[in-house]
Amino acid sequence: MAYLALLRAPHVARLLAGSWVGRLPPAMAALTIPLALRRAGASYGFVGIAAGAFAIAAAVGAPLLGRAVDRWGQTRVLAPTAGLAAAGFITIALAPGHKLPVLVGALLAGAMTPPLEPCLRALWPDIAPSGRLESAYVLDSVAQELVFVAGPLVVTACVAVQSPLFALLAQALLGVVGVVVVATAPPSRRWKAAARSSHWLGPLRSPALVTLLAALTGTGFAIGTLNVLVISYAEHWSTPGGAPALLALNAGGALIGVLIYGTRNWPGTPATRAVLFAAGLVSGYGLLTLVPPPPYMHALMLLTGAFLAPLLTVTFLLVGELAPPGTTSEAFAWEVTLFASGTSLGSAVVGTVLEHTDEHRAAACGVLGTLVTLLILVLSRRRLSVQQPDVNGTPDAAPADV
Q1: What is the reported pTM?
Q2: Yes or no: domain 202-384 corresponds to CATH 1.20.1260.10
Q3: Average pLDDT of 338-353?
Q4: Are 216 and 342 in contact (CB under 8 A)?
Q5: N or C, which terminus of the chain has less Cβ within 10 Å?
Q6: Domain layout of the chain by residue ranges
């Protein structure tokens, strides 16, 4: 009922739905680009280059677009990026058999990915009812998990109806529709960043924020190892649905965990809660090193997801608190970038480990990532519990619990 009340608040449902639709294209691109290129006869080598170009461009572009939002507002950035990203996907769809247009399209679509995630998270303090900010971040986490579930399903439907090229065109349209819904909403149109001091580092001049982002990179690394580990696991064990089903269980566990988290008031500061959830994540990934038979593996997929989404929800809250005034959008964009970079690195490392050793050691790589997160959060808990100085250099009081 609390979530329904939040969704009934002015503009909340519209902005959440529009952001969700607009976030589908990046989740779809990991499948649509390789499928379209393979259908056109491209080699696996070039498929990897094109997919990597999209991912790298998105990682580099996100903080730059976040800084642009903080400087010029949301609508002025969202509108042109939606058109340019769509043009990138359409370019790939029109010339999937030609390398140069494909690379240009992938770079354009990745670099111009509309910054809907940071924009929505910057809006929550303005549109969430009083005392409901953390519940709003819970809904944001739920939406993000559903993006990764729905994205592949939309691709599957498009391929079944037409082809991978149709899926590319569909995601171009979805991106534009999502941005139109968000960018034309009154809270987005009138949003302005707080007064800021000029500094080339932007939000990264906050040592506490940099510490938090480093911790999240470890979590992203763990997720990257899991994405590859389940593929190897499905090849060795007979499990219904294979690797996609295992990842769906992980996402389902995340949904359950974050919904339970949002139903009660938790004691302690957000930094303390982050430590607790990170410890739970370490425990779940530690059990994964046993690489148990399917019934137990299914339970572990649910368990690891159950701790992940609450951890991310708390970090959303902390990023908003720790970002220096006027840099909130860029701070959330850095969160997206570093988490995704950690995921890519984890996938690459565990792939190499699987080639030379076994699944137990590959799973241990995920434990390493979660331990990095936990260690950083434990050592910096006091620092993360204090907000950064404002533009005049005066420290704010320690944040109150939500």
Answers
A1: 0.81
A2: no
A3: 85
A4: yes
A5: N
A6: 2-190, 202-384
d(CA 25, CA 168): 8
pLDDT digits (tens, 9 = 90+) for 261-276: 877 777 788 899 999 9
The number of beta carbons lying within 10 Å of the beta carbon of residue 200 is 6
Task: Check if the beta carbon of residue 352 is closer than 8 Å to that of residue 234.
Answer: no
- Burial of residue 271 (number of CB atoms within 10 Å: 0-12, 13-18, 19+): buried
Return the CATH number of the domain spanning residue range 2-190: 1.20.1250.20
CA 375 to chain centre: 22
Model confidence at 370, pLDDT cuts 50, 70, 90, reads very high
pLDDT recorded at residue 398? 40
Q: Say which residue the tokens 């295992």 belong to.
A: 246
Sign, Cα dihedral of 109, 111, 112, 113? positive
> Exposure of 274 by Cβ count < 10 A (0-12 exposed, 13-18 middle, 19+ buried)?
buried
Across 35-57, average pLDDT: 85
Determine the Cα–Cα distance for residues 350 and 27; give it in Å rounded to an integer: 21
What average pLDDT does the segment 202-221 reach?
Answer: 91
Cβ neighbors of 387 (< 8 A, separation 6 or more) are: 321, 322, 395, 396, 397, 398, 399
